[in-house]
Design a protein that fits this description.
Blueprint (H helix, E strand, L loop, with lengths): L19 E5 H5 L8 E4 L1 H8 L4 H18 L5 E2 L2 E5 L8 H12 L20 E2 L8 E5 L5 E6 L8 H12 L4 H21 L7 E5 L5
Parallel strand pairs: 1-3, 4-5
Antiparallel strand pairs: 1-2, 4-6, 6-7, 7-8
Helix pairs in contact: 3-4, 3-6, 5-6
Length: 214
């Protein structure tokens, strides 16, 4: 029996974050996902991958969630058959973290990705950088060609005044143990609000149609 994020050493709110269910034909083909290739990801999976929980990881989770909903509606998204177009370069800011979470959920990989079996299931070169996207990234269905671009306005959930007082001490290395504990609580407090109170807030997550250049 699987263990949910609620049973792990994570903040309790992780279990309340919207999950993302996808179908992966490669997983089905290889017998790794026995119920029609479906797999459900929890936010804790992204945290395990990134090694931390922050507004960037949370925002990426929500951008993928809302982007896939726009592309697939009530259908189950097909992992491995989605192209991703990142607007920034691979070494720009937190783009590496964003790309890692996007790859986890969509299967899209850069040139280092899986090259397939018998001409099927390739994920290599489905994730591209420095693309003409008005947002953080775009997602494109390979079966229909429809694409959407997604952006994040994390300022919708700002840091609290208390965090502005505690953060300099925590980052500067002169915080007390109590300060550090409070810093962690406040940090995850913002992440919690993003993920549970603004998960589909169009003011924070903006999704629009996108047309790839020919």
């Amino acid at each position: 029996m699987g263990v949910s994020s609620r049973d792990q050493d994570f903040p309790p709110f992780f279990a309340d974050v919207p999950r993302i269910t996808v179908r992966d034909k490669l997983a089905q083909f290889l017998g790794a996902a026995v119920h029609g290739g479906t797999m459900t990801y929890e936010y804790a999976d992204a945290v395990r991958l990134a090694g931390h929980s922050c507004p960037t990881v949370a925002g990426t989770w929500l951008m993928v969630l809302n982007g896939l909903r726009a592309l697939y509606g009530d259908e189950v998204p097909v992992r491995g058959e989605i192209e991703v177009f990142m607007s920034d370069s691979r070494d720009s800011g937190a783009n590496g973290v964003i790309a890692s979470v996007v790859q986890l959920l969509t299967g899209a990989a850069p040139e280092t990705g899986f090259h397939g079996i018998g001409g099927q299931f390739s994920r290599a070169d489905l994730l591209k950088f420095d693309q003409p996207v008005q947002g953080v990234f775009a997602l494109r269905r390979m079966d229909t060609g429809r694409a959407v671009q997604v952006s994040l306005n994390a300022a919708v959930v700002p840091w609290t005044d208390e965090m502005r007082e505690v953060m300099p001490r925590a980052v500067g290395g002169y915080a007390s143990d109590a300060d550090l504990a409070r810093f962690g609580e406040l940090w995850q407090g913002r992440v919690r609000k993003m993920l549970t109170e603004h998960a589909s807030d169009p003011q924070m997550i903006h999704v629009s149609d996108w047309q790839p250049r020919a």
